[in-house]
Specification:
This protein has 186 residues and is of the alpha+beta class. Helix content is 38%, strand content 34%. The chain has helices at residues 2-13, 66-70, 88-100, 105-125, 159-170, 177-183, and strands at 17-21, 24-27, 29-32, 35-47, 50-59, 76-82, 133-138, 142-147, 150-157. It has a single domain (17-183), classed as Chalcone isomerase. It has a seven-stranded antiparallel sheet. It has a two-stranded antiparallel ribbon with strand order 1-2. The protein has six helices and nine strands, in the order αβββββαβααβββαα. 37% of the residues are buried. Strand 3 and strand 4 form a beta hairpin.
């Protein structure tokens, strides 16, 4: 009887993983702003033949629709696990380019101050180093960038910015088509 109790306790202590991408175990569930989120999908960002990062998308409920994911209400998380070193400027420019490629020009112009704020935060962080975990959390009021579980910089207000970030991976011109499919559970 004692053995069963110990065995059960050991099982409960292990986190449940929803996916493994390039050797990175991605948890099945997360919590943001006291909301339980589920892993919608996970994938690998590649550039040429380099593996850049493993990424997971967390939403209140699963969906295979990009628009539904982008417009979902409640908290959400984009969790990035770096697989190589990337300069802060390069990381920020890639995000800015992804936004420009997926939102109308007028909206992109309106978002420039928020993209600049994100760039300032990343500059303070420095290089996005291999093994680093970066999260972009929407908490219902603002997007908070965190590095290895610690908030970095001030939250960036406005849901339109959070949705523009999601469009980098889920928009009509995603950064990588197979990654979009993977994040949508495909």
């Amino acid at each position: 009887m004692a053995f069963r109790a110990l065995f059960f306790a050991a099982l409960v202590g292990f986190p449940a993983y929803g996916a493994e991408v390039a050797g990175v175990k991605i948890p099945e569930r997360m919590q943001v702003a006291n909301e339980d989120l589920v892993l919608n999908g996970a994938g690998l960002r590649k550039r040429a033949f380099f593996q850049v990062y493993a990424i997971g998308l967390y939403l209140p409920k699963k969906t295979q629709s990009a628009e539904e994911a982008i417009k979902s209400s409640g908290a959400r998380r984009v969790a990035i696990h770096m697989l190589r070193d990337v300069k802060a400027e390069t990381f920020t420019e890639a995000l800015a380019e992804g936004i420009r490629n997926n939102v109308p020009e007028t909206e992109a112009k309106a978002l420039e101050p928020k993209v600049k704020q994100l760039g300032t935060i990343m500059s303070e962080v420095g290089e996005a180093k291999k093994g680093m975990n970066i999260t972009l959390d929407w908490n219902g009021a603002a997007t908070q960038l965190s590095v290895d579980g610690k908030p970095a910089g001030q939250p960036i207000p406005g849901e339109e910015f959070s949705r523009a970030l999601l469009r980098i991976w889920l928009g009509d011109n995603p950064v990588q088509e197979d990654l979009k499919k993977a994040l949508l559970g495909g």
